Amino acid sequence: NMNPNAGAQNGPDVSRFIEPDERILWQGQPMRGVGNPLRLGGMIVLGVGVLLGLIFGIVGFVLGNLSSEVGQTANRNVGAVFLWVGPLVFGIMVFTGATLLIAGRFISRNIAYVLTEQRAIIAQGPSFGATRTTLVDLTDVGIIRVLENKDGSGSIIFGRSSYYSSQGGYGGSGSYYDRDYSIANIPDVMNVYRLIR
After folding, report:
1. Rounded to an integer, what distance in angstroms lies between the CA atom of residue 169 and that of residue 175?
2. Contact criterion met (CB below 8 Å) for 82 and 60
3. Residue 27: what pLDDT?
4. Beta strands in the chain (DSSP E)
C-alpha cells in the first residue's frame, strides 16, 4: 500500500480519508511548470508586457528626439506620452504576470490527488486555515470527461447531476462539471484514466 502523501510533497494530508482496506492506485499533484495554466498565463502576460513596454519606449524616444530636432511641440508631447505610458503598461503587465506565476505555484503546491479502487480524493488547501476535500465515489460517478493535451498531460473531470435540467424545471438528467470534481493538470492523463475504468 502506498503512502497517500508520498506524491504530494507539500499538499494537504489525505491519509485520514483512506480506509485500512483501501488500495491506492495512483497519487499526485498538478504540474508546476509551464503546463500549469496560471503559470503559462503569467509567462505570456510577462512577455507581452515586456514587448509593449519596449515598443512604447522606443516609439516615445524616437518621437521625442525627432520632434526636438524639427521643433515640433505636438510630436514632442506625443513622444512624452509614449515615454510615460510605456513604463505604466510595462509595470501593470509585469505585476499581473508575476501575480499569476506566484498564484499558479501556490495553488498547485496545495492540491493533492489520490485515486483508490473505490474513489478519487481531491484535497485543496490549506488556505485561510481550511482544507477542502472532495471524495468522488468511482462506482457511481456518472460522466467522466478526459481533456488531453498534445504532450499527454491533461485533466479528468467527473460529472454530477445538476439541480436544473436543460429542458426547464428542476431534477433533470443533465450534468454539469465542477472544478472541485476534477483531477486537473496532471502528466500522463490517459494512464490515470485507465486506472479509473
Report:
1. 14
2. yes
3. 92
4. 24-28, 111-116, 119-127, 130-137, 144-148, 154-161, 175-186
Give the neighbor-by-neighbor strand order of the sheet with 111-116. 24-28, 111-116, 119-127, 130-137
**How far is CA 121 from its chain centroid?**
19
Cα gap 67→14, rounded to integer Å: 66
Q: How many domains does the chain have?
A: 2
pLDDT tens-digit readout, 120-163: 998 887 766 778 888 888 888 778 889 998 989 899 988 755 55
Task: Report the alpha-carbon distance of residue 41 to residue 97 in Å, rounded.
Answer: 7
* 3-class secondary-structure state, position 2: coil
Range of the domain at 178: 15-31+111-196
- Residue 136 makes CB contacts below 8 A (sequence gap 6+) with 119, 120, 121, 122, 158, 181
Retrieve residue 50's grid coordinates: 515586456
Asked whether residue 20 is domain-assigned, the answer is yes
Contacts of 132 (CB under 8 A, 6+ apart): 123, 124, 125, 180
Residue 22: DSSP 8-state: P
Which of helix, strand or coil describes residue 96? helix
Q: What is the pLDDT of residues 46-91, one digit of tens each?
A: 888 888 888 887 877 777 676 555 556 655 666 667 777 778 888 8
Based on the domain organization, do 80 and 129 belong to the same domain?
no
DSSP 118: S
